C-alpha cells in the first residue's frame, strides 16, 4: 500500500522525503515501544512486576462429594510497588485432567498465569478488597456448595484461586495472581476401588553408643539427648505415633529405635566430651515410657514390618561392602535380632520378609544383597523399576522378578508428594491435593482393581507427617480407594504386562551413589569384628560385650549415615577405640631387667585384669630369644593357663635354667585358646651371673685363713696364762684355787689346760658336733626355689 501511494502522487523532494520518514519514525515510536513492552512482559506473566501472590492455606474437604460445601481460605500479598484497587479473589474450576502427567505439569508451576485456569465462578462466591497495599497480607475465605461448581464426570479437575484488580500503570481489570491445585471428584462410591498400602515409617538416626556402665545393669550411654526431643510431646516421633494411631497403615519400624527408647525408659547416661558420662534426665525416662506405652496401643491389631536392626544401607553393602569379607554376615545378624527386639518391646510379632533400599532404587546387586538375609520381598519404586511396555495405566505393585523374590513397586508420584518444606500451610495443602489427585487419576485409568503402595521418605519431619496424615485420612474416607496391608499388596495378583526387568547397576542414580558408605567404612567394621571375636573368647560373661558391640556394628552401617560421612566415621572410630580400651584392661605388667644368680631360678610374670568380670581361656607364653644361653622349662618357650578375677592381678611363674653367663632377652605374650595373640607382648632382659667353682675356692680359702687366725690367737692366750701362773708361785696359785672354789660365778673366766679345747672344736669322732660353717664345693645346679633379684 505504501508503494501504491507513492506511485499515485507526485515525487517528493529528497528533503521532504527525509522529513516524512523522520515523522513516521516519531509517530511509530510509541507503537514500537508498546510492542516491545508486550514482548518483554509476556514471559513474565507468571510473576509480573505488579503481581499478587496467592497462598491457598486450606481447602476442605480435600475430596468433596455432592452434598458438601467447599471452603477455601488463604492469603494474598501485593508484591508490586503500586496499590491494587478494585481487587477481588475468585474461584476457578478448570478442565478435567485425563493423565497423571497433566497433574505433574500443574504441580510444577501452580502460579503460572498462562496456564489453563478456567472460568471464574464469580458472583457471591468472591471476596472483594477495595485496595491491596504493597507488602501487606490480606486473608480471604470463600465457601461454595459443591453443586455450584458444576462438576461433571468423575475425575480430577484443575482448581484455582485467583486475584484480579487494577493498578495505575494498568488501569483495567486483570488477573494479577493465581494458585492452582486439584479438586478430586468422585461423587459416589467407585465401581472399582483401588487398594492402597501406606507405609508409616518409625525410623530415627543413631543415638546409642557401644559404651555401657560397669554395673550389672550395664546402663547404656547415649551420644546426645536428641532422641528425647523426638519422642517428647510435639516432637517428630511423638507426632508420627499419634497421627498413625488413627490411620489404617502398615507400620515400618527400625528395631534400633525401639531398643534406644526402651533403654532410655530404664535409665541411661549421656556421653561427655571428655570421655566420661553423666546420668540422663529422669524426665526423659518418663517421656520414653509414655511413648512406648502409646506405641504399643497404636500398633495393636496393625501390621508391623520390622526392618533389619539399625536399618542397614543395602545399596552401600551391595556396591562396596561385599568386597570386604564378613560384611554380609552383619546383615544376617541384624535381621535375626529384629523380630526379637520388636516382640520384646511392643509385644507384637512383626513381619521380617521385606527389604527397603534407599528411595526404592534397585539394581541386580542390591536385590542380591537384600535377599541374602532371608527377605524375599524388596520394596522398589516406580522411578527405578520403570515401565517399558508403554502401558496406559499404572500396574499393581507386586512384580515377580525371579528366584522366588517379589519386587513391591511403590508409586513414585504418591510416595514423593510429601517431600520438601511443608512448614507453611500453603505448601502442605498443595501436597495433600496433589497426592489425592494422583491416587484418583490412577484409579480411573482402568476398570480393574489394582494395588498401589506408598513408600514415603524414611524420616518425615513433623510438618510432613501432618500433611501425610491429612492426605491418608482423606483417601481412606474417599470413594475410590480402600486400605491394604503391605503383605496384602505383595501377595496380590501381578499384572502380566508390568515390567519385571531390574535396571542395570550403571542405571543406579549417581546422586544416591555419592552418599553411600565407602569401602573404608566396611574395613573398619571388619576390624572391629575381628577384635571383638578375639576379646570375647577370654570373657566368662560374653554377653556383656558381644551384645552392645554387635548392635554398635549394625549401627555403623545404618542408612541414616547417608550424607553424614564425618559423623559416621566418628561413630565407628569411637566404637573401635572403646573396644581397644576394654581389651587393653587385660594385659601383662612391664618388667625391668631380671638378674639370675645361679644356674636355675623361677621368673614371675604378672597378668593384670582391670575388667569387672573374671577372664580365662588365656595362655601365657614365655619365650627365650637365646635358648642356648637361657631355657624356659628346659626348652625355648613354655606356656601356662591364666585365669584372673575381675579387678585383680595374677603372677605366673616359669622355671628357667642358664647355660652360660650374660644377658638373654625374654618375650612374654598372652594367647587365646585358639592360638591368637592377645594384647601386646612384654620383653625384658635376664642377666645371668652364675657362681663358678673358682669363686667357691676363693671363698673357701678365705674361711680357712679366718679359722687359722682364730686358733693362733687361742694358743697365744693359753701360753700367756701359763707364764703368769709360774711367776705367782704355789701359794698364790692355791689362793686362786680357793677363790675359784668359793665363787662359782667366776668359773669359766679361764679354762684349765686339761679341760681341752673350747666347745665346738672337738674332734670329728664326737657325736652331735655342729656342721661345718661352709659346705663342700659342688658343681651341681642350685635349687629351683632360688629367688630372682630384680
TrEMBL record:
InterPro entries: DUF6049 (IPR046112), TonB_box_CS (IPR010916). This is Uncharacterized protein. Residues 756-776 have a biased composition (Low complexity). PROSITE patterns: TONB_DEPENDENT_REC_1 (PS00430). The chain crosses the membrane at residues 695-714. It comes from the Bacteria. Residues 481-509, 722-790 are annotated as: Disordered. Residues 1-46 form the signal peptide. Keywords: Membrane, Signal, Transmembrane, Transmembrane helix. The lineage of its organism: Bacteria, Bacillati, Actinomycetota, Actinomycetes, Kitasatosporales. Residues 727-743 have a biased composition (Acidic residues). It comes from Streptomyces griseoluteus.
Amino acid at each position: 500500500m505504501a508503494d501504491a501511494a507513492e506511485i499515485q502522487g507526485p515525487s517528493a523532494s529528497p528533503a521532504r522525503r527525509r522529513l516524512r520518514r523522520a515523522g513516521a519514525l516519531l509517530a511509530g515510536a510509541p507503537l514500537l515501544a508498546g510492542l516491545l513492552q508486550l514482548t518483554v512482559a509476556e514471559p513474565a506473566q507468571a510473576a509480573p512486576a505488579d503481581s499478587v501472590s496467592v497462598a491457598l492455606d486450606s481447602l476442605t474437604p480435600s475430596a468433596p462429594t455432592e452434598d458438601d460445601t467447599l471452603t477455601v481460605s488463604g492469603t494474598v500479598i501485593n508484591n508490586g510497588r503500586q496499590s491494587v484497587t478494585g481487587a477481588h479473589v475468585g474461584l476457578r474450576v478448570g478442565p478435567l485432567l485425563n493423565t497423571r502427567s497433566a497433574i505433574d505439569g500443574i504441580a510444577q508451576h501452580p502460579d503460572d498465569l498462562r496456564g489453563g485456569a478456567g472460568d471464574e465462578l464469580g458472583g457471591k462466591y468472591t471476596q472483594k478488597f477495595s485496595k491491596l497495599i504493597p507488602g501487606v497480607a490480606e486473608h480471604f475465605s470463600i465457601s461454595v456448595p459443591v453443586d455450584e461448581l458444576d462438576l461433571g464426570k468423575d475425575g480430577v479437575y484443575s482448581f484455582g484461586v485467583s486475584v484480579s484488580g487494577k493498578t495505575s500503570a494498568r488501569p483495567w481489570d486483570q488477573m494479577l495472581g493465581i494458585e492452582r491445585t486439584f479438586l478430586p471428584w468422585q461423587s459416589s462410591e467407585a465401581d472399582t476401588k483401588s487398594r492402597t498400602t501406606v507405609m508409616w515409617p518409625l525410623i530415627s538416626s543413631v543415638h546409642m553408643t557401644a559404651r555401657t556402665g560397669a554395673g550389672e545393669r550395664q546402663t547404656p550411654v547415649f551420644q546426645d539427648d536428641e532422641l528425647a526431643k523426638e519422642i517428647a510431646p510435639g516432637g517428630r516421633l511423638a507426632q508420627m505415633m499419634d497421627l498413625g494411631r488413627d490411620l489404617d497403615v502398615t507400620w515400618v519400624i527400625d528395631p534400633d529405635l525401639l531398643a534406644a527408647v526402651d533403654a532410655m525408659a530404664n535409665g541411661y547416661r549421656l556421653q561427655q566430651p571428655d570421655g566420661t558420662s553423666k546420668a540422663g534426665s529422669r524426665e526423659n525416662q518418663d517421656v520414653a515410657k509414655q511413648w512406648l506405652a502409646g506405641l504399643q496401643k497404636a500398633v495393636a491389631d496393625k501390621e508391623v514390618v520390622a526392618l533389619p536392626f539399625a536399618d542397614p544401607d543395602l545399596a552401600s553393602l551391595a556396591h562396596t561392602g561385599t568386597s570386604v569379607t564378613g560384611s554380609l554376615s552383619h546383615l544376617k545378624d541384624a535381621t535375626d535380632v529384629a523380630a526379637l527386639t520388636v516382640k520384646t518391646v511392643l509385644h507384637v510379632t512383626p513381619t521380617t520378609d521385606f527389604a527397603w533400599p534407599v528411595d526404592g532404587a534397585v539394581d541386580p546387586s542390591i536385590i542380591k544383597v537384600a535377599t541374602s538375609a532371608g527377605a524375599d520381598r524388596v520394596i522398589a519404586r516406580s522411578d527405578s523399576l520403570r515401565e517399558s511396555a508403554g502401558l496406559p495405566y499404572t500396574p499393581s505393585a507386586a512384580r515377580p522378578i525371579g528366584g522366588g523374590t517379589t519386587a513391591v513397586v511403590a508409586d513414585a508420584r504418591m510416595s514423593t508428594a510429601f517431600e520438601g518444606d511443608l512448614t507453611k500451610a500453603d505448601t502442605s495443602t498443595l501436597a495433600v491435593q496433589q497426592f489425592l489427585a494422583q491416587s484418583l487419576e490412577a484409579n480411573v485409568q482402568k476398570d480393574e482393581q489394582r494395588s498401589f503402595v506408598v513408600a514415603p521418605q524414611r524420616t518425615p519431619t513433623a510438618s510432613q507427617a501432618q500433611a501425610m496424615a491429612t492426605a491418608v485420612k482423606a483417601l481412606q474416607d474417599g470413594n475410590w480407594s480402600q486400605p491394604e496391608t503391605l503383605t496384602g499388596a505383595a501377595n496380590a495378583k501381578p499384572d502380566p504386562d508390568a515390567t519385571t526387568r531390574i535396571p542395570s547397576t550403571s542405571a543406579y542414580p549417581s546422586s544416591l551413589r555419592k552418599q553411600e558408605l565407602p569401602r573404608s567404612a566396611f574395613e573398619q567394621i571388619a576390624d572391629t569384628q575381628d577384635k571383638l571375636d578375639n576379646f570375647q573368647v577370654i570373657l566368662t560373661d560374653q554377653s556383656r560385650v558381644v551384645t552392645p558391640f554387635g548392635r554398635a556394628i549394625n549401627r555403623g552401617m545404618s542408612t541414616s549415615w547417608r550424607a553424614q560421612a564425618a559423623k559416621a566415621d566418628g561413630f565407628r572410630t569411637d566404637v573401635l577405640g572403646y573396644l581397644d580400651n576394654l581389651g587393653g584392661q587385660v594385659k601383662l605388667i612391664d618388667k625391668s631387667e631380671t638378674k639370675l644368680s645361679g644356674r636355675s631360678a623361677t621368673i614371675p610374670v604378672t597378668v593384670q585384669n582391670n575388667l569387672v568380670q573374671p577372664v580365662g581361656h588365656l595362655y601365657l607364653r614365655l619365650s627365650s630369644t637365646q635358648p642356648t644361653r637361657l631355657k624356659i622349662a628346659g626348652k625355648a618357650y613354655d606356656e601356662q593357663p591364666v585365669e584372673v578375677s575381675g579387678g585383680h592381678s595374677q603372677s605366673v611363674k616359669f622355671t628357667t635354667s642358664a647355660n652360660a653367663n650374660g644377658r638373654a632377652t625374654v618375650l612374654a605374650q598372652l594367647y587365646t585358646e585358639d592360638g591368637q595373640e592377645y594384647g601386646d607382648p612384654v620383653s625384658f632382659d635376664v642377666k645371668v651371673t652364675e657362681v663358678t667353682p673358682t669363686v667357691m675356692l676363693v671363698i673357701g680359702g678365705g674361711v680357712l685363713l679366718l679359722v687359722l687366725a682364730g686358733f693362733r690367737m687361742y694358743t697365744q692366750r693359753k701360753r700367756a696364762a701359763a707364764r703368769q701362773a709360774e711367776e705367782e708361785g704355789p701359794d698364790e696359785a692355791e689362793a686362786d684355787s680357793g677363790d675359784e672354789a668359793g665363787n662359782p660365778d667366776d668359773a669359766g673366766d679361764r679354762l684349765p689346760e686339761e679341760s681341752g679345747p673350747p666347745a665346738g672344736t672337738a674332734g670329728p669322732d664326737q657325736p652331735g658336733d655342729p656342721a661345718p660353717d661352709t659346705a663342700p664345693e659342688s658343681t651341681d645346679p642350685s635349687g629351683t626355689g632360688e629367688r630372682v633379684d630384680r
